[in-house]
Specification:
This protein is of the alpha/beta class. The chain contains 18 helices and 14 strands. A five-stranded mixed beta sheet has the order 6-5-7-14-8, with helices on both faces. A five-stranded mixed beta sheet has the order 11-10-12-9-13. Strand 10, helix 14 (303-314) and strand 11 (323-325) form a beta-alpha-beta unit. The longest helix has 28 residues, at 162-189.
């Protein structure tokens, strides 16, 4: 399968420039190359992609529908690459480059990322099946173009400073954007195929994603879907470098995320949960009575942890003497089923156990425990048609969850209000 790293960046730049022109002659003049050279570059790119990007006629050159779809993603990717190069130079107080995306080659990028990943030229060469001198030369060429030192040796490993690490993340994001363009073309050649990579926070694994994945799988059986589980900070990092397309779970109103967009899908509330035979089952205990038992405590700095600590504080309750800090719903269920442990869960997270009388909520939902559940995306992200269909389905299923929870009126309005707050703050 064609990968973004396999495509010549200069050819991609030439194709984007041509798509903005009405003739090969105008494009070649803008690029300062001959018309035969430009025509050869476009033909080679089209041959690799297996799709015509342009049609020629006596009226000039027009971009095909497939070409427009592909090149829109390519233009995004080249723009990310150019901005990253300029930012890296700016950090060293260097003057901006003229079209850096045209001066950088895919060989240089592959070598640079391999050295960063492996920590050395020898291992990088082995991982790419290149010679060590060729890897070293490619990295030096990239360093010369950027005018910024990329690595320093600590005696055993080649290490990159923080600014270069950020540059590498942006390169990965640029390649992911170009890959989306390739995926769009593949979907034209083979309808119903493609790939989606989704991140998931704990709640989404039980309340939302299983339904979305099952329904989407029924209508798109040949689409490869990868689900990456992680904590919020991990998924944000993966989102920013293009490793995942989007992630689902509790949204964060307490963190500035200027480059990301959070979209609320439905509201959720939290219950204290324990085994069905727990001494407090069927009661409405006070916070002090609850903390007399061992607790599975939400992870520090998470929205759930803040809700739990506020609940204890308002009830003048001490922290439980026995506690396990844990973000795993599976581990929490195991502890609750094997003792008098208590924890916080959305009712979606223990719905099956509640149905079979294994776990029960203890008392009513925690006051002020409403949380927006939704999807987080890059603000400038251009989803493929397949990814857009996945998002649309997630929105539709979220509406069903809201209806099932009786959220059509009050909570639906809260969801809209939260979305307004998120869009204003970020």
């Amino acid at each position: 399968m064609m990968q973004s790293e396999d495509l010549n960046l200069r050819h991609l730049f030439a194709a984007v420039t041509t798509s903005k022109s009405d003739s090969i002659s105008n494009a070649s003049e803008s690029l300062h190359i001959s018309q035969p050279a430009l025509t050869h570059a476009i033909h080679k790119l089209e041959g690799l992609l297996g799709q015509a990007l342009f049609v020629r006629s006596n009226r000039g050159i027009q971009t095909t529908p497939a070409g427009r779809l592909f090149l829109s993603h390519v233009q995004d990717g080249l723009g990310i690459l150019a901005a990253a190069a300029q930012k890296l130079r700016q950090s060293e107080r260097l003057a901006p480059l003229i079209t850096p995306e045209r001066q950088i080659s895919n060989t240089q990028i592959r070598a640079f990322l391999a050295v960063l990943r492996t920590g050395g030229y020898s291992l990088a060469a082995r991982s790419l099946n290149f010679s060590q001198p060729s890897i070293y030369r490619a990295v030096q060429e990239l360093q010369f173009v950027l005018g910024v030192p990329l690595f320093a040796s600590d005696g055993t490993l080649m290490r990159a400073p923080d600014g270069v690490q950020h540059f590498a993340d942006q390169i990965r994001l640029a390649l992911a954007s170009i890959q989306s363009g390739i995926d769009e073309l593949n979907a034209i050649d083979k309808p119903g195929t493609g790939r989606i990579c989704v991140g998931s926070l704990p709640l989404a694994r039980s309340a939302l994603l299983p339904n979305v994945l099952a329904s989407f799988g029924n209508t798109h059986p040949r689409v490869a879907i990868t689900v990456v589980e992680g904590q919020f900070a991990e998924l944000v990092s993966s989102l920013r470098d293009g490793s995942i397309d989007m992630f689902f779970g509790a949204l964060r109103r307490d963190i500035e995320l200027p480059d990301l967009r959070q979209q609320a899908l439905f509201m959720d509330e939290l219950y204290v949960v324990g085994r069905s035979g727990h001494p407090l089952a069927g009661k409405t205990p006070t916070p002090v009575e609850l903390t007399a038992y061992p607790w599975i405590v939400p992870m520090a700095h998470s929205p759930m942890r803040s809700i739990w600590e506020d609940f204890l504080s308002r009830g003048n309750a001490p922290f439980p003497a026995q506690q396990v800090e844990c973000g795993s719903v599976l581990l929490a269920r195991g502890l609750m089923c094997n003792g008098d442990w208590l924890g916080l869960m959305s009712r979606h997270q223990f719905a099956l156990e509640h149905q079979y009388n294994v776990l029960k909520h203890i008392g009513p939902p925690l006051p002020d425990s409403d949380r927006p559940i939704g999807v987080t995306m890059r603000r400038t992200w251009r989803p493929t048609l397949l990814q857009k269909a996945f998002l649309d389905l997630a929105e539709e299923i979220s509406k069903s969850i809201s209806r099932a929870d009786g959220q059509d009126t009050v909570r639906a309005e809260k969801t809209r209000s939260v979305q307004q707050v998120l869009s204003t703050c970020h």
